[in-house]
């Protein structure tokens, strides 16, 4: 079955440590996204990538970094510079940013707790 | 700038009652409109979408929504709530002009009472 796989599902880290969240898709989608979800705030866009080896900052990119070396993979690193990293992180993909309706396909999410 | 407003962060209904979740948007051009549903500790999944054509859109699990351009609304309804409908619902707007971006509302958590 095609879909998006995020790992790990739950992650605990100490303050000051960098952590990397994995996102893999087998939908053959060009565009991939990372969102952060906090209670009562909806989804906020961290980074997005329209094509391999290219990515753009979203609305809340500070303290995060990404890479897009393969079409299928879009890992997110939460760095120690992120002041409040505890959140639920969602990876998504769409066929292409410039074509189609913009329908998003989501992974199951990764919950990061910083102790 | 686009925005999406969902009226009511929490809505509570009795099982079997009508579900109505409100969504209003601002957009300078006709947008594509979506409702997504999220169950606890899971990702979002598409409930239904409006792109073009018929303004009454039917989705999964008996939900439907009507695009009303004059009111800039896209309210979600279901005639009879079921316990399994308890979840968080997000309205979203996408425009493929001037920057391809999806804007989400803050979400409405639906509670269903037995």
Topology:
The complex is a heterodimer of chains A (115) and B (114).
Chain A: E1 4-7, E2 10-13, E3 19-25, E4 31-37, E5 43-51, E6 54-57, E7 64-66, E8 76-78, E9 87-94, E10 105-106, E11 110-114
Parallel strand pairs in A: 2-11
Antiparallel strand pairs in A: 1-3, 3-8, 4-5, 4-9, 5-6, 7-8, 9-10, 9-11
Chain B: E1 3-7, E2 10-14, E3 19-26, E4 32-38, E5 44-50, E6 56-58, E7 64-68, E8 73-78, E9 87-95, E10 101-104, E11 108-113
Parallel strand pairs in B: 2-11
Antiparallel strand pairs in B: 1-3, 3-8, 4-5, 4-9, 6-7, 7-8, 9-10, 9-11
Proportion in helices of chain B: under 10%
Largest sheet of chain B: 6 strands, mixed
Average per-residue pLDDT of chain B, rounded, comes to 92
CA gyration radius of chain B, whole angstroms: 14 Å
Give the percentage of residues in beta strands of chain A: over 45%
**Low-confidence sequence ranges of chain A:** none
Summarize the largest interface: chains and residue counts: A-B, 24 and 24 residues
Mean pLDDT of chain A: 93
Beta-strand share of residues of chain B = over 45%
Shape of chain A: globular
The N- and C-terminal alpha carbons of chain B lie at a distance of 41 Å
Q: How many distinct helices of chain A?
A: 0
Largest sheet of chain A: 7 strands, mixed
The tally of beta strands of chain A, per DSSP, is 11
């Amino acid at each position: 079955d095609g879909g998006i796989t995020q790992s790990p599902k739950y992650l605990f880290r100490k303050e000051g440590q960098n952590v990397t969240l994995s996102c893999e898709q087998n939908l053959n989608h060009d565009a991939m996204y990372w969102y952060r979800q906090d209670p009562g705030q909806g989804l906020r866009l961290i980074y997005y990538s329209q094509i391999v080896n290219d990515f753009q900052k979203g609305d809340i990119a500070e303290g995060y970094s990404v890479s897009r070396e393969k079409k299928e993979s879009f890992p997110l690193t939460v760095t120690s510079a992120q002041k409040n990293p505890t959140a639920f992180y969602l990876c998504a993909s769409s066929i292409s940013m410039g074509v189609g309706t913009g329908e998003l396909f989501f992974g199951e999410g990764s919950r990061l707790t910083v102790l | 700038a686009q925005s999406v407003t969902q009226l009511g962060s929490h809505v509570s209904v009795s099982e079997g009652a009508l579900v109505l979740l409100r969504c209003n948007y601002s957009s300078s051009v006709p947008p594509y409109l979506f409702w997504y549903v999220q169950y606890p500790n899971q990702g979002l999944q598409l409930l239904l979408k409006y792109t073009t054509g018929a303004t009454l859109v039917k989705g999964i699990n008996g939900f439907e929504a009507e695009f009303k351009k004059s009111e800039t609304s896209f309210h979600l309804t279901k005639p009879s709530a079921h316990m399994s409908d308890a979840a968080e619902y997000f309205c979203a707007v996408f425009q493929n002009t001037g920057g391809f971006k999806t804007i989400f509302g803050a979400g409405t958590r639906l509670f269903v009472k037995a």
